[in-house]
Amino acid sequence: MAKSAKSTIFFCQNCGYESAKWMGQCPGCKEWNTFVEEPKKPAKSAARAGAGYAVAAGLRPSSGALAGRGRSVAISEVELSDEDRTTTGIGEMDRVMGGGIVHGSLTLVGGDPGIGKSTLLLQVCRNLSAAGVSVLYVSGEESAGQIRMRAERIGTFTDKMLLLCETDIDIISGEINDKKPDVVVIDSIQTMFSEAVGSAPGSVSQVREITGALMQIAKGLGISIFIVGHVTKEGTVAGPRVLEHMVDTVLYFEGDRQSSYRVLRGVKNRFGSTNEIGVFEMRGEGLREVENPSEFMLEGRPKDASGSVVSCSLEGTRPLLVEIQSLVTRTNFGLPRRQATGTDFNRVNLLMAVLEKRCGEHLGDCDAYVNITGGIKISEPAIDLGMVLAILSSFTGKPLPADMVAFGEVGLSGEVRRVSRADIRAAEAARLGFKTVVVPESCLSDVSKIKGIKVIGVSNVSEAKDKCF
Ligand code: TYD
Ligand code: MG
Predict the structure, then answer these.
(1) For residues 380-408, average pLDDT
(2) Rounded to two decimals, what is the model's pTM?
């Protein structure tokens, strides 16, 4: 195969790492078999092409973000914009975005295929168009007829919403220039292509190029753009984690496709705090907001069952009660099996080692399964104490009181360490009718003001075991 070594380059599809030769494992993200060969872009293409799109989209150097290009200004002279935000009409979505859509911002909405990204954005478009905001929905995946069919299920749309089924970024930027909508949705980035790049749609260079072009349009014309990006099974947006650093806001839409609930998570936000979550339920008529996620997560909880404990995680500014289930049994094999769903597997192993060493429990030859019900993923260490109690409860066969909530971080010496905002966590437990809350000893003063709930302070895991069972 005759190939010019100079005209192609290898990219990691997972993280965008560039290499002159093919490699089995990516040095950047350590994933295997992710390198693909793509044509090399002409030098400076991204910058030039970006400016090209901006010009195509009607930007004159005197306008918007490109004004006075190449000239520095004193920060005090820069005009303060009062961060104009438009509400999406969906409270949970506004919360994750930090209060609404910022003008001229670029937002990536990532998620597994079929999770509901198009549905969510279509609902946002409906609300915006109903409020008189002009919207252009660009789809590279569905025909206008198919989108109309989906839209019928969701509700009625006004003429403020325009549809464009197109994948060529030149035509799209031309149309944006022509119609000058306030908000644009690109569904999805993996289907779009630019003639300037020789590789196939969805490849790293294409995705970078298109995002760069959209960025120019967003900042130059003050148009807010949503980009839909599909996630591959490795858990990153296909091709582009490359994308995450280029955009202003990154939202992930996650959830179990078998269950109806979905979580929208803010991962990066230049205009607000991250790690806020919004909870939705997928219905026949589209997505519905869940205003009381704790109640939702605890639905169908078994009473007086061993191995079940309620803990509290803080997602952004909002406390979320979750049920942790654990099953501990003697292993039938030489090597015990450990499995974690919804939490970190290594954390479960670590907590079991802590229990073995600091509590004298013989868990070394036990299989253990830990599950956060509802399919939600929680990485906050504050649920450690809940996990420890769930494991102990299943191991001993003794259930914990059904009206008890426990939270606290567990350290390697078995100490229970303080967590942030113990007060709002305890208040959430009290609000949902729980009678007892187990907290780190050092958090006792924080929760002293919470009425209607008995507080137990613990300083290490063996004390927790004595006081809770
Ligand atoms: P979709 O928004 O097409 O997913 P994505 O854009 O992330 O690929 O959502 C598809 C799923 O949502 C599909 O399996 C059907 C389901 N769905 C409903 O349950 N109710 C609805 O009203 C709609 C529009 C979709
Ligand atoms: Mg879709």
Answers:
(1) 95
(2) 0.80
In this structure, is residue 311 part of a structural domain? yes
**Which residue puts its alpha carbon closest to atom 22 of ligand 1?**
286
The verdict on 450 and 325 lying in the same domain is yes
pLDDT in tens, 275-305: 788 989 998 888 999 888 888 888 888 888 8
Q: How far is CA 164 from CA 53, 172, 176, 187, 350, in A?
A: 18, 8, 10, 10, 52
Residue 426 banded pLDDT, cuts 50, 70, 90: very high
Give me the domain span that covers residue 205: 43-68+83-291
Instruction: Give the residue, out of 257, 258, 282, with the most ligand 1 atoms within 8 A of its beta carbon, to mutate for a pocket test.
Output: 282
Distance from residue 113's CA to the centre of ligand 2 (Å): 7
Q: Is 306 in the pocket of ligand 1 (CB under 6 A)?
A: no
CB 312 within 8 A of CB 356: no
Q: Is the pLDDT of residue 52 over 80?
A: no
Q: How many structural domains is the chain composed of?
A: 3
Q: Are 271 and 102 in contact (CB under 8 A)?
A: yes
CATH number for position 279:
3.40.50.300
Residue where one domain finishes, among candidates 291, 325, 350: 291
